[in-house]
Structures are given as C-alpha cells and as structure tokens.
Amino acid sequence: MERKEEExxxxxxxxxxxxxxxxxxxKGKITVEEVSEEGPTVSSPQMITYDPSSMTIDRETxxxxxxxxxxxxxxxxxxxxxxVNPPERFILSxxxxxxxxxxxxxxSYWKLLSEDLEKSPPVYKTAxxxxxxxxxxxxxxxxxxxxxxxxxxxxxxxxxxxxQNEVEQxxxxxxxxxxxxxxxxxxxxxxxxxxxxxxxxxNMHNLPILLRNLMEMTDKIKEDVVSFKLEMRxxxxxxxxxxxxxxxxxxxxxxxxxxxxxxxxxxRNVYEKTAEEGDSMDKVKEIVRRVVRRGxxxxxxxxxxxxxxxxxxLDLKEIQHFSLERRRIALIAASVYLLNSIHPLxxxxxxxxxxxxxSLSHHLSKDNINDILDSVYMECEKxxxxxxxxxxxxxxxxxxxxxxxxxxxxxxxxxxxxxxxxMFTLVNSPSVSPLPLPPSPLTPLSSLFLPLQSNFLxxxxxxxxxxxxxxxxxxxxxxxxxxx
Length: 484
Fold this sequence. Notes:
InterPro entries: Tcp11 (IPR008862). By secondary structure, the protein is mainly alpha-helical. Helix content is 67%, strand content 0%.
C-alpha cells in the first residue's frame, strides 16, 4: 500500500493548490462513435465513480458511498456491523443501477468486440475505444499526478490518434499494448492484485478475453484506490456508521409507542443495582461505564428476548451466543466442582478432563441441555471408575450433574452468580493483567475467560460510545432526583 499512500499524499497536496486534474466533464465514456464516425454505437461497460477523499462522510452519505442499499433494516444491520467490527478493508458494493447497466451492456459489447477482432482483416475500432477508456481511468484517478513520467508515457502510448495510425499502417499489436498496460498496472496496484496480473500475462493468446481482463482489472484497481482512500478516513467511516445507528434508535422513539420510556426505565433499573455512594455528575463517565457493563452481563441471563433492551437488539444473535457460552461454562464448572468434592482430581487429570467436557458441550443449546449433561455425567463417571472410586454412594452423588439442567439447582445457581460477578470484573477492569483468578467453582476454567473478555468488550464499547448521551441523560435525571 506504500504506492497508494504516496498517491493519497500527493492528492491532498493537489487539493490544497487547486491543481488537481478534473475528470472528463460528464465522467463519461469515450464511445466508439467518438473514435470513428463509422463506429458502432455501443460503449464499454465501465463506470467511473466518485473520489471519497473529497466527499463528506456522515450518517446520511455513508450508505451510498459504500454502495449499501436495500430495506432499512438491512442497511442498519450493515452499518451496525461496520461500527462494531470494522472490516480490515472497506469493500464497496456496486450500486444496483450500475450493475444493471453493466449487465445489459455486457453481452452485446463483448460479442461486438469478439466479432470485430475475428474479422479478416481485424476491425479495431471497439478495441481502440476500450483502450482509450482504460487510459482515461489511469490518468483520472489511478496514476498519481506527481508521476509525470508515467502519465506522459500512458498518454502517448495509448493516444487514440497513435493507435489509429498503427491500424492504418498495419502495425497494430494488441498484445504489445496489453503488456504495456499490465506493466502500468503492476506499478500502481495493491500487492494482492499481483497474482491476477501475472495470470493475465500468462494468458494473452485470446485477444477479446485479454481486453476484457484488462477492463475488469482496471475496475478492480479503481475499487482498491477508493477502498484505500476510505481506509485513510477509517475513523470517519466508523463514526458515521455509529451515528447512523444512533439516529435510527432516536427515530424509532417517535414510531414505537413507549419504546423510549421502556429503555430509560431499563437504564434506571440497572443503575439502581449498581449505584455507589458518592455517585455524582462529576463521575458520570464512570457511572455510564459501570451501567453499560452491568447491563450487558444482565442481558446474558435474560429469560426472553423481550427482556433485552431496544438498543441492544441488533446484537441479539451475539448476546444469545454469549448467553449459551455463559451457561456452558457454569455447567462445566459445577460438574468439575462436584467431581472434585467426590474424588479430588490431580492437576494433570483435571487438565485432561476439562477440554473433553468443553468439547462435549460445544453445541449446547436450550433444546439439548439434557443430552449434553448426560455426556458430561458419563465422562465424570468414567473418571471415578478409572480411579476405582465408583460405588453406589459416589454414583448417586455424581448423578447430581444431570440435575444441573434445572436452572434453580443450587450448585448451578452458585456457579452462574459467581460467573456473572467475575465477568463483570473482567469487562470493568480490562487493563488488569494477568486476569484475576476466577473464584470457586470457576477456578479450573480460567483459560476460557480471556477470549470472552475480548469479545464482550467489542460490543460493550460500541454500545457505550453510540448511546453515551442517552445514558448520561437518564442517569443525570436520577442523580438530580436524589439530590432533591
């Protein structure tokens, strides 16, 4: 990406001096009829898009900039995905209209090109128009303005008049022109395109396909340039996606009766559970942090979807996954604790058993908990048998594992309660390293918590940043009432 960084720096400099070369007035395509009066009236399926380095990026423009279309819910989910888990590289989705136009032009254009080149002698008008368009793309956005030498080479070698003269003199060599273009591509493209360019170079015998590959590679390089320029403004893109979600929630308050009041009530309820002596507006940031994290942990034990507050609903799938993970850890912890109470395990034996239990419970769901616990029970019974401690008394004790399917079973309740408190500690003090040792009966499972902490914080921090003003507004009202 070093080449692209230089390009971005140069374009910024040119923006400041006002010397940037503008694209063609209509952002248009050099059609075949512009090349020759006798040419057919079909232009190549190529679209020249905007330059994101000079565009305003906000919640209103971001969907169109990224080419995200569809129903409002689908757009919202994509905006949410960008802000929660930003991609390594912003991939532009082609606009449906652009796709439709390209598709409509596709068959007729490439068929015409093939027919022209297969004639005897070959007719190069369509090919010249295509090469000219590639040249325009290279000069208007892909080759940095400061690279004057390469720009001059491209302008001269791909000049329409020069190409027409070569045709008239019988000296036209499409493969030579293609090699020149591919060498230019190699000098300006992102490294991940090199294998594709190499493959094109190795398959240059079919001229229609070769020219088509050149045009498609121009499209890809253009997309890379646009993506890179968006990457340079990554923080703006993520903030715009976050503001899109925030605005959607605020808009829903006017549509869904009682939604705002219900959400504010949820925030008040969580705060009341976490309130500390000395809370004041001077500590509001700390209070919001505490409320968001406690609220997230509370969501993991929600008995129904309706208990998940409105501003967490876009993360419902992840919350349900984390909820099952919470239950899985609690069941394994309770089972291991029970087994240790019957027959204390050596560290090596315990270290061997826990991965097996984790694997057995990997596909835990609300519908198969009894089957999972049966498997865990049999594994623990096996440990007792191998230790020659399995008898009628110990077998009755270990059967309690099966009873853990009851959410009110005391050992399970204890494990889940301590798990919730420990997870809150982890997300509320993420900078503590190494992680504090979990309390009994969670202690043997300490290796499972580091990835959980990281995953939890991704969603917690997003929620806190996106809806911070909402939390502050509700908490300030509560603190004001307390003072009165």
